[in-house]
Structure prediction request, 279 residues.
Amino acid sequence: MLFPLLLVNLLVAGVRLEEQLIYPPQFTRERIVGGEDAPEGMAPYQISLQGAASGQHSCGGAIIEERWILTAAHCIHGKTPEAFRVLAGTQDLKKNVSRYYYVDRILEHCDYEPRKYRNDIALLHLNESIVFDNSTQPVQLSHEPLMPGDWLLLTGWGTLSLGGEVPAKLQRLEVEYVPFEECRLAHGNSSHVDIGHVCTYNDKGRGACHGDSGGPLVHNGKLVALVNWGMPCARGKPDASASIAYYHDFIRTHLSLHEAAAAAGTEELAAWRSKSHCH
Ligand SMILES: *[C@@H]1O[C@H](CO)[C@@H](O)[C@H](O)[C@H]1NC(C)=O
Ligand SMILES: *[C@@H]1O[C@H](CO)[C@@H](O)[C@H](O)[C@H]1NC(C)=O
Ligand SMILES: *[C@@H]1O[C@H](CO)[C@@H](O)[C@H](O)[C@H]1NC(C)=O
Ligand SMILES: *[C@@H]1O[C@H](CO)[C@@H](O)[C@H](O)[C@H]1NC(C)=O
Prediction:
């Protein structure tokens, strides 16, 4: 709770933005602010990544196939699959209509750089297939380049105000795409903004601060990005997310390697499971 306030104090003290204020959303309690309840069925691909033991919501993510979830690398970094459970099929954390799935393999991007927030993307493989229905569906990946003036749909569970309560209901917010050059400029030419990011912006003072880390940004019904990092709320700086188009090869390579191993038999599948995916 103190952390966001601390950051505001740093800003007032004039500490250099680039050094001090860029941080991943996971380090703050503040997530979607100024959004509204998502209408039922709006984001059937949305999951809540939770601590298996605590049951606490920690990050967002998106269903892309029966057994595959995409999220941010900083959501899973340094943890084992057993640490997590995945809640799918609900937009209400308190409603008992949904179900949990369990992770048996984490594939973090090999070049994820925690301090530079680069390549902040990960795949989670589930030990059971997700049962699809009206409220549980995969989302298609977008390969289309975004254009200035495009608006994206951001969804996530997050506090509604600084240090406030986590809402039960999934929040939605429209955010505008910010081209790379403009985004980097807005962040003082920081190299923390790179071409693997999709930047988005909400009106200054409107209160949109961060989406849930790992949470989906969707354009025309297709997944375009996963929330990576942002600046303190309503300061007028774009937030940065991992671009799905940019990481297309990372995603496709691992899905096909898994598919090939599964088709080859249980031994190959076991080998896939135990093998490091970075070489
Ligand atoms: C949800 O279901 C579980 C087990 O079926 C039960 O223990 C729990 O109390 C229920 N929660 C709510 C909010 O109804
Ligand atoms: C998946 O993992 C969970 C948690 O470890 C376990 O309870 C469940 O039985 C597993 N399901 C399958 C199909 O192995
Ligand atoms: C799913 O949605 C379709 C179309 O909106 C509707 O006709 C159907 O009754 C729904 N099924 C369930 C189980 O809610
Ligand atoms: C960022 O780079 C642009 C173009 O190279 C330059 O015009 C601008 O002054 C730079 N801004 C900062 C804050 O360094």
